[in-house]
Amino acid sequence: MIRVFLVEDMQVVRAGLVALLDGEFGIEVVGHAADAREALDIVGGADPDVALLDIDLPGMDGLALARELPRQVPTCRTVMLTAMDRAGYVQRAFDAGASGYLLKTVSSKELAQAVRVVSLGGRVIEPLALAEEAGAKTPLTTREAEVLRLAASGADTRAIAADLFLGVGTVRNRLSAAVGKLRARTLVDAIRIAERHGWI
């Protein structure tokens, strides 16, 4: 069972998130708070695996809370769940130690899946937030976009290498770099993100 702690100052939104996540198989909401101070007072007793934090909290914001939570619960991983999509917030969230950044426009299934991925040590980022962060400019080099485009067409590593006159290892490195730059979980996710934003 994945234990989740919520920090959201809007009571209706908080109640909705509790109901939504408690209804997901393998996920249990073990506590919630309306602000960072309340969260820090009670999160240790809840011992969560994942904390979902709003950025725009009264007093101490969610980014500061993300930095403080590991002192209370060292094994807890954090996901920012926010309506704030202004440039700069994604990188600030990851710099604060977050393992995920989702906009509140995500579906309930996407949110539950993100909780599962983060609980297993992965990282998640909502593609629209990534596009905002990048100013809609591709983070990929020309070569990385090229190998990703060929992978999207169904070509395997050897076929891409032959087509571009590259070594198989070089192709793998470029695909891996593309996945990392797009903060994707898999190559398929990277292709989906890149195609959605017209980067390949």
Considering the chains and any ligands shown, give keywords for the structure.
200 residues; 2 domains; six-stranded parallel β-sheet; Arc Repressor Mutant, subunit A; elongated
What secondary-structure arrangement, pairings included, does this model have?
Elements: E1 2-7, H1 11-22, E2 27-33, H2 36-46, E3 50-53, H3 62-72, E4 77-82, H4 89-95, E5 100-103, H5 108-119, E6 124-125, H6 127-133, H7 142-152, H8 157-164, H9 168-181, H10 187-196
Parallel strand pairs: 1-2, 1-3, 3-4, 4-5, 5-6
Q: Could you give a short account of the major beta sheet?
A: 6 strands, parallel
Please give the share of residues in helix: 40-55%
Report how far apart the termini are. Answer: 39 Å
CATH architecture of the largest domain: 3-Layer(aba) Sandwich
Q: Biggest sheet, strands in spatial order?
A: 2-1-3-4-5-6
Overall description:
With 200 residues, the chain is of the alpha/beta class. It has two domains: 2-133, Response regulator (Rossmann fold, 3-Layer(aba) Sandwich); 142-196, Arc Repressor Mutant, subunit A. The protein is 52% helix and 14% strand. The chain has ten helices and six strands. The chain has a six-stranded parallel beta sheet, with helices on both faces. Helix 2 packs parallel to helix 3, helix 7 (142-152) crosses helix 9 (168-181) and helix 9 (168-181) packs across helix 10 (187-196). The mean pLDDT is 88.
